[in-house]
Design goal:
Number of domains: 1
Order of helices and strands: HHEEHEEEE
CATH architecture: Roll
Helix content: 10-25%
Number of helices: 3
Number of strands: 6
Strand content: 25-35%
Shape: globular
Strand order of the largest sheet: 1-2-4-5-6-3
Radius of gyration: 15 Å
């Protein structure tokens, strides 16, 4: 599902820096560039997903929980909302500074009910190669409860 904002043959995020980003590696895209690029992911934006950190193979994103949007009939956070956040973190981690990348297989385990008013997802590359990438995304609520773990296999489209 991680096709957020990627079009055929397009480099996901331009590499560069700006004066407001204090990254020590000048080859890393600035956080505001990453946010601007992924602002075209309209579903994640509508869900309230916000990128807090992004480097190649790593992303931290958060999502405030709204009763009128993220809750199911039982009042719990919907699994789809949790998956959306995890998938968005995956999209950011796998696409920043990389060839356009899409997931080909995802598995999510819901570990505990989410509580509080926001979720935070952290995605890390387990292995990131030229054609395939393997990632793990962990989702926590604001109380520190481990809500879900998603693993994914991704395919990198080769640049022309």
């Amino acid at each position: 599902m991680s096709r957020e904002g990627v079009t055929k043959g397009q480099t996901p995020v331009a590499v560069g820096t700006d004066d407001d980003d204090k990254r020590s590696d000048p080859t890393q895209p600035a956080l505001d560039q990453v946010r601007a690029y992924f602002s075209r992911d309209h579903f994640a934006a509508a869900a309230g997903c916000v990128i807090d950190d992004a480097t190649p193979g790593h992303a931290v994103v958060r999502m405030p929980l709204r009763d009128d949007l993220h809750r199911n009939a039982q009042g719990s956070v919907m699994g789809g909302a949790i998956f959306t956040l995890a998938d968005f973190a995956l999209a950011v981690a796998s696409n920043v500074g990389q060839a356009p990348t899409v997931s080909v297989s995802n598995q999510i385990e819901f570990l505990s009910a989410a509580r509080g008013t926001r979720l935070v997802a952290t995605c890390e590359a387990d292995r990131s190669g030229r054609a395939l990438g393997f990632y793990t995304t962990d989702v926590y609520d604001e109380l520190g409860t481990h809500v879900a773990r998603m693993t994914a296999t991704c395919f990198r489209r080769q640049r022309p």
